[in-house]
Amino acid sequence: xxxxxxxxxxxxxxxxxxxxxxxxxxxxxxxxxxxxxxxxxxxxxxxxxxxxxxxxxxxxxxxxxxxxxxxxxxxxxxxxxxxxxxxxxxxxxxxxxxxxxxxxxxxxxxxxxxxxxxxxxxxxxxxxxxxxxxxxxxxxxxxxxxxxxxxxxxxxxxxxxxxxxxxxxxxxxxxxxxxxxxxxxxxxxxxxxxxxxxxxxxxxxxxxxxxxxxxxxxxxxxxxxxxxxxxxxxxxxxxxxxxxxxxxxxxxxxxxxxxxxxxxxxxxxxxxxxxxxxxxxxxxxxxxxxxxxxxxxxxxxxxxxxxx
Length: 308
Hints:
Elements: H1 23-29, E1 38-39, E2 45-46, H2 52-66, H3 83-99, E3 107-111, H4 118-127, E4 130-135, H5 138-150, E5 157-161, E6 179-184, H6 192-205, H7 221-224, H8 229-241, E7 248-255, H9 261-271, E8 275-283, E9 286-294, H10 298-306
Helix pairs in contact: 1-2, 3-4, 8-9
């Protein structure tokens, strides 16, 4: 058994990664991981979490071992998502849907699905959900589509390009579309410089002081930064969700910065949201949250569930 940098007893109870990584099992399903595994001074097998190649290898191994994925590849300049944290969002969203009576025929929109297509892969593997994944980057969608084809998932997961970078739902949703929920991991930073500075601090925390501008720094512009940062992105998201009030039961998004939550609540109240929830998620020393909202009345919610 080995170190799991994401290990925490506070991950969702259904998360398969609440225990330390078993590197022997992971290397058996993904032999390329072997070159990155070493025994540290505590006599524990681990990897260098400051090395992007090692991080990509271990997350690939996790997908192969636990989620029935046999192919997962994308350019190194795309963001490599940490599987334990990403699947936590899936489990908490499932709890939200179940508590609302939504237990079958679940369809999800993943906003900014990226080249890794990670949320659709995990949501389909864990709960059999149908997905539409959207992104503004055509090359990322092409890579994601290759992953879907190789894993025979194209009948469960559809990809759509958002051709207008200032829009989220307009141009992607049709009037007849109806979804159980949306999910989103919004760009966090306001600029490339802010992202690079944050990465340097992260690497220092990992004990790495060499070449910190490139090591464990992956992610294209649209994945990491947005003019105005996370707050500007989520407020665009809130506004556009109000234009499609009856077409989705729950709108949700990750929110990294706690100070952004209150302004979201204020805006949603003005936009006519009937219910807003904040779901805390703890991943190691990091605390993040899912904010969820709906525009459906209680009667409309009951009708939605009754027609499933």
